[in-house]
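Researcher: Please translate sequence to structure tokens.
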Amino acid sequence: MNHWCQLLCQGLKPLAQSSSHLKMTLVNLKNLVHFNGLKLLGWDFNPRQMRKSHLIRRCLCLILLVGMSLGFSPTPAEAHGFQTAYLELREQPSGQINVLWKTPPSFGSGDDGYGPPIDIRPVFPKHCSVAITPGAIATSVSRWTLDCGEKGLAQSTIAFPGLVKNFVEVLLRVEWADGHSQTTMLPTGQETFVIPEKTTVFAVGQTYLKLGVEHIFSGIDHLLFVLGLVLIVGPSWRLVKTITAFTLAHSVTLGAATLGFVNVPQAPVEAVIALSILFLASELAHSRMGKPGLTEQYPWLVALTFGLLHGFGFAGALSEVGLPPQDIPPALLFFNVGVELGQLAFVLGVIAVMESLKRLGSENYPRWLGWMPTYGIGTMASFWCIQRIVAFWG
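Model: Translation complete:
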């Protein structure tokens, strides 16, 4: 009963500043709960203190709302997936072009998992005609053959209508008849692309580096796990060792899974990843209550163990793009480097925010503010656990 009264008081408190009636109600409700309980929430009915924390509460609520909206997306796809289509063009000695077009599975039911299907297909130059009618290999994979005559596809423009509005990227691979190949990620915000005759090793590395960075920043579940580690360990040399252990662990399983040495079903991996985040939320709660858990005592061990698991998640996301065997070694290297760069940027950003809050002083914001990351991480992790376990029978 105390818990619900506290929550109700907390919800009514901002309104009480402009309504004497609600303020009286708030005072009455405050008398129903223990004083120590309210003190834990950091409540202070001093008007000056309330004005100081008013702006902080509003900003924090906005951030929490955005985070919950991202985390509680109704899509049945994994929280760390990214919408990337794959187009492969293979030039034959005869001059014809074999086309492979692969789209994410969610295209069949819309980008939210429930809406109308997303229909995005490449549009080739007018001098290219269909030699062999397109055929579906699977739900999201199609093959057909083009005849582009003597002009070929080099320096020609391919269009992808609807690419930008559906927030989809395209990874393009071209294999020429003379044996050389090139892989390119279409620039964000563009629906047309001119196929160059040749590409450099730097361009290939840049493509996969970008994929890795984008994946870690679109992967809310991985970011929440890293956030939990940072909040528990804090800015210190132990954090450096913890993040290093996490990096080494997921690099090992990412490489093993991508190269085919280990094959783990993706659905259980996603569910256990959510459980790992829920475990960290529990550890963070115990830490705030002065009860150090396993993560606080041996953070590198927890990071190493769960890092192996998260590496399988990274590998699943990389394989969904549809990378050809010839590009797996450089893709693996640059994708992993991109993930690490994005992860490092995120950790530095979190540390900067933590240091800024320290400079403000704990007296400038209520104590319940410190619990919001714990409950936010735990709530989203719980939702993902249920969602992904239910997906086993979906």
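Researcher: Any highlights?
Model: The first helix runs from residue 2 to 16.
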